[in-house]
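Dear U.,

For the methods section draft, I wanted the exact inputs and outputs in one place so we can describe them consistently. I've listed the two proteins in the order they'll appear in the manuscript figures. Please don't edit the token lines directly; just add comments below if something needs changing.

First protein:
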Amino acid sequence: MSITKQRDALKLLQSIHEYPWYVEKFIEHKKTKKNSPSTLLGYLRDFSFFFRWMMTEGLTSATEMKHVSLSELNVLKKETVESYILYLQESHLYERAALLTKPTRSSRKEYSDRTISRKISSLKSLFHYLAALAEDENGESYLTRNVLAKIELEMTELTPLARAHAIRAKILIDDEIYQFVDYVYEGYLAHCDTVKKQNYHLQNRERDTALIAMILSGGFRVSEIVSLDLSDLVMEKNQLKLVRKGKKEDAPFFSDWGKDYLARYLLVREKYNPPAQEDAVFLAVSPGNANGHRIEVRSVQKLVKKYAKAFGIPDLSVHKLRHSFATQFLRLNPDPHQLQAQLGHSKIETTMQYAHVLEDALSKAVNRTT
């Protein structure tokens, strides 16, 4: 199990007691379906939002989530659930303060249709389990009626071409890849307006540049990079030993270009003062722990967003770095099966979305046809 999955599994164990007993039963059911800990945590977050809304609206006598009863779910009306959907659509206007103990800047942002659909899909899964799959000691369903079955989700299914068009504005293409990495190492220093920020950047720029360059040089997931141990590096072959989604062992490659940045970072890795037993490749220090320890996924996501915003592509995220590699790979190596193997995709359809990202290539293909 990867470090990220271990952490999420621990979080799951620590938080499940805050939820009603039937939610714990649902989570156990999903575990038998081999859902990942992060997926299960996503379910809990969506349930938490709904239960807190029920308490705020007086739809339950419970003062804590774990006391929301099955009978209270059983009497919910379709109109009530539709009111919840309306709330999700407008909750940013109130900073979601009623449902969040600590509203953040993101609580002022409007939920996308996809996010709302996901939250409702989570509820539909729970209610379906309670009404159709689970049974009590008498063999009866936990719920006698499933109000969520009456709620239709209207999701616009994007074609691969439309999905690719949405990706194009948020990724790096051609020279932008090298320009962005150069900016992280050299250019961002000019963006630091205090000595403290300058010193922090100088302390971490080899690590940050290597992290980003490695993702861009092999299309790796951020969780895969964060989980790397020194023993997983096969430098002479430009390979990484990984355990991918579905617990699949793999050994994908990275480029010489990425290897140069990784080697530069490894030369200074000891400045993070890691304990002798710390085998993580990418390290961080924190106010509570001055000894180098494995950097977290969330920290990598934040640092990529920081550099991307300063670089002028604010929509660039750590996952879009993976998209950038995939798009560039197909631009220069038109073999989706090779890319499928490199990215660890189980289905070629997933890989093929990158074939449509570059509209100029598609346009030229169309012109060549006639």
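Second protein (the one for the lower panel):
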Amino acid sequence: MGSCLSGERKNRKIVYSEIASTSHNDAVCTRKSSKMKITRRGCPADDATREMSLHRVPGRMFLNGSTDNATLFTRQGKKGVNQDAMIVWENFGSKEDATFCGVFDGHGPFGHMVAKKVRDSLPLKLSAQWELDATRENGQTEARCRVSPPTLINKDSEISHCDLARQDGYNDMYVNLKESFLKAFKVMDKELKLHPHIDCFTSGTTSVALVKQGRDLIIGNVGDSRAVLGTRDKSNSLIAVQLTVDLKPNLPREAERIRLCKGRIFALQSEPQIFRVWLPNSDCPGLAMARAFGDFCLKDFGLIAVPDVSYYHLTEKDEFVVLATDGVWDVLSNEEVVATVASVPRSSAARNLVDSATRAWRCKYPAAKVDDCAVVCLFLNSSETATAIPKEQEFTEEMETKLS
């Protein structure tokens, strides 16, 4: 419930955007100047041109709508501009059986700009890196040594490392794509740091992104957005399997890294369930996640943009994957999300899920402002074999929410 929080100093609230323009002498660790130099090469008009070119790419969807195999929907909450973004890219990397999906939850003064930038640029960087890594000589032992064994997620919601010797069928793809995820995320974060007109010092975004190729699923996660699988158990009952870990500051592995880097982790008395990351000597910015793109005020104090990469081998029992920002997970359980998606036609699944989350916010937290929500539902079986799910041939651009 809230990605970042302003601190207090001398009984005065520090507005989050002030951090980027306050001097070190005022006991807030910030950059020396908040003014950004805008060069002609990186001007907003150039970015707008590139963005329009991206929007015309076949199979790339970022607005509310659906296809035969996916549906996506976002709605602005009550906190201001919608800082969530989403994407479905079919035939990803010019591969007919590959799909890229992602949701991005921005935060901070320019979080909406960061989320959109990552939505537009990360898939391009991943595709380019994937193609580069795939051209390397097959059976390269150096890559196998550098990359840890695939993180497999089993149906009991536990995570374990499998023996590479038993994974000959998808070894190479996992190794290549994991390398590609790691490099693409690193380059993306570096680009944000050098961006000429998006100030990412106290703004950032989460990202949970996946690539599905055939029956292989690779997921890269930064932050506390989440991916959940709807699948059938041995008794053919529909169950939820969480595919990612919410990378919160109080997770032991995350907390250890942050504290070794002199960052502080604690929860406020007014919200004891939400642990946040704070600067060493100032009660700001109060980031409610341990990993994120951007937020460079905390990058020296334990915050990282390295993705947690995992692998899942799909079976015939797996029906759909749901990616959603924390506006959904804060109020709905994994089981509620899977049941909601399964109860409606696939073309309206994402919108119905956002509707359910909005109602849950008003019921559970009547005094709180409803958070932005973004949902992507990727269906794993063809509509011909799915029951009670109609086809929708064209992507519909519902402009109910205008992404800015």
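Candidate sentences for the figure legend, describing the second protein: Helices lie at 44-55, 111-134, 141-146, 171-193, 252-260, 326-329, 334-342, 349-364. Confidence is low (pLDDT under 50) at residues 6-41, 155-169, 384-404.

Thanks,
Y.
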